[in-house]
Fold this protein.
Amino acid sequence: MAQRSQPVTSVGKMRCISCRDEYLASDAGTCKECYEEASETEEELKREIEDLKSKISFLTWLSPVDDHHRPSSVLSFTDVVLVATDDQSPPVPAHKAILVSRSPVFKAMLESEMEESRSGTIKISDVSYNVLRSFVHYLYTAEATLDENMALDLLVLAERYQVKHLKAYCEQFMTSKVNGENALISFAFANQHNAKHLMEASLSMVMDNMDKLTKQDEYKELVEKDPRLVVGIYEAYLSKQVNTAAVATEYL
Amino acid sequence: MAQRSQPVTSVGKMRCISCRDEYLASDAGTCKECYEEASETEEELKREIEDLKSKISFLTWLSPVDDHHRPSSVLSFTDVVLVATDDQSPPVPAHKAILVSRSPVFKAMLESEMEESRSGTIKISDVSYNVLRSFVHYLYTAEATLDENMALDLLVLAERYQVKHLKAYCEQFMTSKVNGENALISFAFANQHNAKHLMEASLSMVMDNMDKLTKQDEYKELVEKDPRLVVGIYEAYLSKQVNTAAVATEYL
C-alpha cells in the first residue's frame, strides 16, 4: 500500500496511456507528446482511407458481370462483346470506352480499323468463360475473387492485354501462396510471364528445399523443357552458398 | 557525470523512442510494446493508402475534359454531348454509360425514351461552360479544382443531378471557407440546398457574430426574402443562451 501511494517515478513504474498497464522505465516507449502526435496521425490516416474508399465507390462501375458470375442487369449502352472462343459460351458484353481506358492492347485494337473494331466482337482464345467474365469484371471494379487457378489464368490474360494493375494483383496473391510443394512450378511460371516478385519468392523457396529438388517430377520436366532455367537455379544456389561462406569467414 | 552513468529510472528520466528526447515519468506516454504496435499499425495504414490510391488510378477515367479545361484527345466512343444553354459554347462530349453510372437523374433520362436519349444531346440551363466542363470532369475522375464560386455552382449542379459524392466534396470545401463575413449567405445557401454540415458550421459562425448581424446588408435582404429562416437563427441563438445559462447555474 505504501508503495502505491508514492509517485510512480520513485518505484520506476509508469502506466501506459494506451494499454493502461504498468511498465518499468526500461520498457518505456514514447513520451506523452509523441503518443498524442501518433494518435492524431493514426486518426488522419484513417480519415484519408475513408475518403479514398468513398472515391473508389464513386469511381467503380457497376460491372456488366457481377461477382457471382450471373448476368447483371447493368448492361446500359454496351457496344462490344468479348467471346471465349474455346467453349460454346455466351458473349460477355462491355463498353469499348472501358476496355480502351484499361488496356493499351484493347485501345490499339478498338481505335484502329481492325476487324474487332468493325464487328464489335473481340475473340479471346485459350481462356474459359469463367475466367473471361472475371477479367471483364475486374476491368470495371478492380476486384476479383481469386483462387490459385484463377490467379494464374487472370495473370496470363492481364499480361496479354497489358492490364498492369490486375497482373500485380494476381502476382501478389500467388506470391502469398508459394510453398515447398509448388515453388518450382511457380518459379517456372513467373519466369515465363515476367513476374519478378513471384520469381524471387519462389526461387528463394526452391533454394530452401534444395534437398528435395531433384526428386520432384516437375524438376525432371523442367530440365527437359527449359534446362537454362534449371541452370539459373543452381547458379543462384551456388552464389548464395559462396556469400554465406564469406559472411561466416568474416565472423571467424 | 555520476548521474549520467546511473540507470535512467533512478533519476526519473527516460528517452522517448520516437523523438529521442529525455522526458520525466510524469510526461510518459506509452510502453515499448504499445509503441511498436502503433508503429506497425501506421505502416499498415500507409500501405493500405498506397493500395487504395493505385486502385483509384486504375479506376479513374481519362476525362474528355482535362484539368485545364482544354479539349482532351480522349474522346473515344463518346455517344452523348452536354450543352450549356446559357452561352454560345461548344458541346461537351461524354459517354452515356458514365453519366448513367454516376447520376440517377441521367440514368432515368438516358435509359428512357426521353428527348435526350433520342437526340444524344443533354441541354443544361443556368450553368456556364466552365462549370459544366468541371462537372463532367468530376464524373470521370472524382476531382475538381475549386474556388468559392466553383464550389457553389458545382454544388447546385450536383444536387440537381443527384451526384452525392460531388455535393459532399463541394460542401466540405465551402464549410472550410465559412467566416464572419460570409456566414449569413452561406447559411441561407446551405438551407436552400439542403447542405447540413455547411448549415451547422455557418449557423454557428452567425451566432458567434450576433452583434454584427443586423448591420449587414445580407441580413436585410434575408429578412425580406426568407423571414422564417431569420426567425430560425434567433431561435437557435435563444436556445443556446438558455442552455449556456443552465450550465452556468449548475456550476454555481
